[in-house]
Amino acid sequence: MAEPVQQVTVDVTFLRMDAPPADPARPLPGHVRVDQVLHCSVPFYRYLYDTVGEPWLWWMRRTASDAELAALLSLPAVSIHVLVKDGEPAGFYELDRRHPQVVNLAYFGLMPWAIGTGLGRAFLRHAVDTAWAAGRAAVTVNTCTADHPRALPAYVAAGFERLRTVREVWPVPTRLGLKVPAHLAQG
Fold first, then answer.
1. How many other CB atoms are found less than 10 A from the CB of residue 72?
2. What are phi and psi of 115, to 5 degrees?
C-alpha cells in the first residue's frame, strides 16, 4: 500500500554565482558567530533541519533514515555551519562540495525566532564566502515558492543569477504532519 501523501505544487528556481562578490562582506554582529560542526550528529542535524525548515515545508531530509543522514554527514565534502547568537543556534547552512567544479549551498535558513532580526544578509554572505573558499568555479543554490518569500530576492541581492525555474509536484508524506505555508498555492 502506498504511503498517503499531500501533493504540493512548487516552482523551484535554480541560481548560480560565477564569481565571488566584489564588495566587502558585512560583518556579523559581535554577539554572533558561525561555527562549523565538525562531526554533526544525526539528532542535532534533524533539530536544525526540522526547526529551520518546518515553516517552509522542508520535508525531503525528514524522510531519510538515520543511517542515510549519518552517511551524508560523514562525507568530507559536506559541511554544516551553525549561526550562534548568545549561545544558541539561530540558523544553519549546508555546503555540498561533491561536484568537482561547483559548491552547492544545499540548505540555508534561520530559526523562526531569528527571522527579521537583521542577521540574514550577513549570514548568507558568510555562506557564500565559505563556499568560494573551496576554490571552485561556481556556487549554486536553489529555492522554491514554499520557502520564505524573501529567499529568492535575498539570493539575487547576494549576487546569484537565476538559471531557470521548474514547476514540481512534491509528494509530501502526510505522516510528517507538515503544514503547507499559507503563501503557497496547493496543487
1. 19
2. -70, 130
What is the Cα–Cα distance from 81 to 114, expressed in whole angstroms?
16
3-state secondary structure 44-62: HHHHHHHHHHHHHCCCHHH
The answer to whether residues 140 and 104 touch, using CB atoms and an 8 Å cutoff, is yes
pLDDT 10s digits, 89-132: 999 999 999 999 999 999 999 999 999 999 999 999 999 999 99
Distance spanning both ends of the chain, measured CA to CA? 23
Cβ(86)–Cβ(30) under 8 Å?
Answer: no
Q: For residue range 45-68, what is the model confidence (pLDDT) as tens digits?
A: 999 999 999 999 999 999 999 999
If you count DSSP H runs as helices and E runs as strands, how many of each does the chain have, helices first?
A: 4, 7
In this structure, is the dihedral angle defined by the CA atoms of residues 148, 124, 53 and 83, taken in order, positive or negative? Answer: negative
Count CA atoms closer than 13 A to 168's CA, side-chain side: 15
Asked if 115 and 78 touch (Cβ cutoff 8 Å), the reply is no
